[in-house]
Design brief:
The protein is of the alpha+beta class. It has 2 domains: 103 residues, Aminopeptidase; 152 residues, Gcn5-related N-acetyltransferase (GNAT) (Aminopeptidase). It has a 12-stranded mixed sheet, sandwiched between helices.
């Protein structure tokens, strides 16, 4: 067991992409996040080595995007090294770090298998939410036609301040354990707009009277896979099919750039977004469980 760091990011990316089948992540994304995250997050990484390779990886930090400032930890162990105490040892290091920061609430995620459930419950975590993972082949999506008065535009051609305002309002209504309601414009630029895997040409907004009112944000990873991190609409423009329009256009653009599989993750209570995914032909791909303590 040891402190993790940038020298581990390549191996950590490989381990994480193997443990989490739906993950669309790159080494450059992990490096970018580590370099741009605010110091107030107090992020630390922990590593476990076995048989000359990285066997486990964990991280603990303050969830700086929420005004509630809960703690967050994540522990991942490679399949061949489980049931040897590695996960527990990594968890203890994460817990000690967060305890030193005075954190009272800790969030985490797990896969839905029984072993992961039992591990979380045994360490005092309570299952609070389930996220449904869905996937679609974007090559099956027909190019959409925008109605009169609506223009489809790549995000990269828009004023990022306007997209930030749209994202902030839409994000406030996304179901979840905590509200992601405290992201400054500069931090949003680093986390989303400037993320090295963000495809600002494929990501699309529906624009009305020069203002983006609905959008889908796409991150493209290795191996022809991508993920839509967020799809949202300003409250005043909901119920008009604009989120479906923006997401359809984004998927078509993704296919044109060589993406063969697009994944998305939604709280299972987010009925409007799940209906949009169903209309677009998304199929079940898995799920993640959200845990909280206390």
């Amino acid at each position: 067991m040891r402190e993790g760091g940038p020298d581990d990011f390549g191996a950590a990316t490989e381990l994480l992409n193997g443990v989490w089948p739906h993950r669309v992540g790159s080494e450059r994304a992990l490096r970018h996040a580590a370099a741009t995250e605010p110091t107030g997050a107090h992020r630390r990484y922990f590593a476990a080595d076995a048989d000359g390779r990285l066997a486990g990886w964990a991280t603990a930090a303050i969830e700086y995007q929420s005004s509630e400032r809960p703690g967050f930890l994540q522990v991942s162990v490679a399949p061949g090294f489980r049931r040897a105490g590695i996960g527990t040892a990594l968890l203890e290091r994460c817990e000690a770090h967060l305890a030193g920061l005075g954190v009272s609430t800790v969030l985490s995620f797990s896969t839905p298998d029984e072993a992961a459930r039992a591990f979380a419950a045994a360490h005092g975590f309570r299952h609070t939410n389930t996220n449904r993972i869905s996937a679609v082949d974007p090559r099956t999506i027909e190019p959409p036609s925008a109605p009169a008065g609506v223009e489809l535009s790549p995000l990269g051609r828009l004023d990022p301040h306007q997209v930030y305002e749209l994202d902030s309002e839409a994000m406030g209504d996304v179901p979840g354990e905590v509200a992601m309601d405290d992201v400054s414009f500069d931090q949003w630029l680093a986390d989303y707009w400037g993320h090295p895997d963000t495809d600002l040409e494929a990501s699309t907004a529906a624009v009305v009277d020069g203002r983006p009112v609905a959008f889908t944000h796409l991150r493209a990873g290795p191996g022809g896979r991508a993920v839509t991190d967020m799809t949202g609409t300003l409250r005043a423009y909901r119920g008009r099919g604009l989120a479906l329009l923006a997401k359809s256009a984004t998927l078509v653009n993704a296919a044109a750039s060589g993406v063969e599989l697009v994944l998305t993750e939604n709280d299972e209570t987010n009925a409007p977004m799940l209906r949009i995914n169903q209309k677009l032909g998304y199929r079940p791909f898995g799920s993640t469980l959200v845990w909280s303590r206390p």
